[in-house]
Amino acid sequence: MRISRKEGNCSASSATSDENGKESLDEYEVSAKYYDIWTEELTEDIGFYRQLAETTGSPILECMCGTGRILIPLAKKGYEVTGVDRSAAMLDCLTAKLELLDDETQGKIDVIHDDIRTFKTNGRFKLAIIPFNSFLHLLETEDQEAALKNVWKHLTGDGLLSMSVFNPKLDRPEKVVRHDGTKLTAQGEIISKFECQTFDQPSQRTTVHYFYDISRQDRQVRRVTTTFTLRYLFHREAMDLLRRCGFDVLEVYGDCDFSPFKKTSDLMIFVARKAE
Question: Are the CB atoms for 23 and 100 separated by under 8 Å?
Answer without folding.
Answer: no
